[in-house]
Amino acid sequence: MSYGTAVNVMLAVQEKKTTAVDLYRPLRQYISVTYGEREAQVVEDDLDAVRQLRLDIEKPPDAAASPSLRRDLLLSYYRALAVIEPRFPISPDRAHVHTLTFTWFDAFKSNKKASQQSIHLEKAAVLFNLGAVYSQIALSADRTDAAGLKQACNSFQSAAGAFAYLRDHAAARASAAGGATVDLSVECAGMLEKLMLAQAQECFFEKVIADAKPPALCSKVARQVGLYYEETYATLSAPPLSQHFDRTWISHVQLKAAQYYAEACYRYSLDLHAKEEIGEEICRLKIGINALADAKKSSKGVAQPLLDAVNKLETNMNNNLERAVKENNRVYLMRIPEASSLTALSAASLVKPTSMAEFLDASKETLFSRIVPDSSTKALSKYTDMVDNIIRTQAEKLQEGSEITRVKLKEMDLPDSILALEGNLSLPLDLIEDIEAVQISGGPSGLEAELQQLRDLRRVNQELLVQTEELLQKEANEDAQFRTQFGTKWTRPQSSTLTKNLQDRLNKFAANLKQAADSDARIERAMRDNFELMAILDRRPIESALPSLARPIMSLDGNEDALVGALKQSLRQLENLGAQRASLEDMLKEMKRKDDILPKLMASTGSQDDLFKKEIAKYDQICEEIARNIEAQEHLLLQIQAQNDEFSAIFNLEDYKVAREKSYKQISAAIAKYREIKDNINEGLKFYITLQDAITNIKQQCSDFVMTRNIQCREMIEDVQRQLAGLNFKADGKMSYNYPSPDQSNLQRNASLQLEQQNAPSHPQATYHRPPTEQPRPGYSHPYPAYATPQQAPYPPPTAQYQHPQQPPNHEFGQPAYPGWRGPYYNAHQPQPASHPPPYTMRAPYPPPHQGNYYRPQ
């Protein structure tokens, strides 16, 4: 017995010892005789590798060596044995490897040993030592820090996995060969598995205590530790282990079981104290203290650290008991319940044996890969074909049975009709998906908000259009006033001539808006006319709109409930048969996966056909179960058919089906109408946004035009003022000054005032925002032409008399509109930049509806 260094003392298992065995000669001789000398020469390296592994196993564990290296060595040797077993049968039989004898000593009674001419004893001993090494790794870990505690817990679980694998796969075979020691028995392997699980769970208890988890959780973890130790003690104290193990082991496990039962009571009492359940707290503490006192009576030989831990726990519990009794006598005055009346403490298992199948899997080993006779390979292939034929035939029967059930139930409208009677209505899957899509997008109740967005966008476009027209009209009025005041001296072109192109475009936009308003009105009218139809889509849940299957108004014999109950019971039986078929199919696949007869083939000396007949017979039972399942299903379907006919007649099921189909069609029509209106609204939103871009663009052009005209106006006023100032030269070469008359001065002042008024903004700049638009539906393209700047310049360039000084190039509009100056208007005869959008063709965006689409371009 070994003890850990932490406060909580734990146990580790010592390895079994063995005698030296030469694997090389017997195996090579068997290969040479059975497969030929050439094959024996080819596998020389493999034989040397196996011999070296056995020599390393025979060496006693070195205290300075790493336990991890010892673990890896044991794993490698076990996989080598798994490769050897099906190829070279080891037994007293003269046709097998009969000169090999393995000897192993008992790990707990070193004076006892077992010798067998069987590889099963060798594999069982290696598995035992693997579990022992894992337990030593766990015990050597430093459990005072988190990393060491985790390593200890994982290693104890791995040790439990190794002993569990020994119990399930090797112990029985080793014992069957005769002469195996007690430590390799099924009972001992099971006991060691529980012991390792107890110590792994104990590591978790140390963790929850260190992490200051709630007392209720600590109690559950501690109780599970105690349960594992109790199971271990029960096996240890019964034959054949009761007389085999040292008394200190039994005392240690017994005291541990009592310690953690008391620990669970102690932690649970802390939780009870916090809840002020003082009566039960006192009872729990007494129970735990009595358990410790009883266990301490038989604790002879137990390690002193364990006794110290038990005494400390007992002291804490006595202190708490004394405090609780005083508080109860002074304050609570609660009745102390009897111990027998208390419920058992809850337990929470946080550990399990680590699966060793992956670590011990020899499928990737290359040792002796050439040693598989052709006859054995062909025989194995023949057997595999036989198994595949059985699996395929039975799987087809199972699938056919499931398909028949599905079709028959659909024909009888089951179980939908039963669900409808209970109010659990359902819709077809395609309708459910369409309804969910409608409700996610807002449903019919959300269409009014989208219509309001259309109205807002139309209003914004109308306001932009009016502002743009007023901008041009204001400039034209001012130009007319100057022309009236200055007469023939005002020589620049008239505004109406230059803005004709812009006015035409604004008129077209106005026509677009009028046509769009008509389309909006048609949409609103369609929504009003169909809102009652579409309102069904806003029902939540939508199944509430479906008709219900009602009971008959008058009952003749009152057996409706009994009939429905019998039909539901039959459907449950049918469902159970379906689940059984799925389980049977999984069993077939699992049986095929585990059906490896290669070792038996290579070790068998009898007829292969007899072996195949014996092995294939294990599928007879599952085939019979499949046949019984199919037969039971046939009888049950006939019974359900008769019950459903009676059910349909009593509950008038045909009329219900007609009403249900009518509801389905109504919902489908509502979805179609909703999508139609929704698509039209989306197209309207896209149209108004596109039109707003176009109007904003032309408004900018008009602003630039007005700015340019203001510049020209200022220059022309200056020129007229110079002319009116009368700056002339006489014939004799002397300069004379002609001062303006009062009328001329007034004319100049009026022109300046008009120019200042012209430069003042006529409308404040409004900021417009757009509502979010939906992404186009798949398969749909935008039906409206885009809007951009026109291809023709808004007005021709002025004469050279009014050229403006050179300005920086404007790359947005391309070529300049006036010679020597690049302004905001481009020449329609010059190519446009590649990044500029194509010119917009003005077309009516809202033609009369065509097939329900209110927004379709002409």
UniProtKB/TrEMBL annotation:
Compositional bias ranges of the Polar residues kind: 755-765
UniProt-annotated stretches for the region Disordered: 755-858
A GO cellular component annotation in the UniProt record: endosome
Pfam families noted in UniProt: ALIX_LYPXL_bnd (PF13949), BRO1 (PF03097)
Biased composition (Low complexity): 782-792
Pro residues composition-biased segments: 834-850
Coiled coil: 447-519, 567-594
Subcellular location: Cytoplasm; Endosome
GO biological process terms, semicolon-separated: protein transport to vacuole involved in ubiquitin-dependent protein catabolic process via the multivesicular body sorting pathway
CDD domains assigned: BRO1_Alix_like_1, V_Alix_like_1
Claim: Coiled coil is one of the keywords in the record: yes
Positions of the BRO1 domain: 9-412
Sorted UniProt keywords: Coiled coil, Cytoplasm, Endosome
PANTHER family given in the database record: PCD6 INTERACTING PROTEIN-RELATED, TYROSINE-PROTEIN PHOSPHATASE NON-RECEPTOR TYPE 23
Protein name listed in UniProt: ALG-2 interacting protein X
Organism: Canna indica
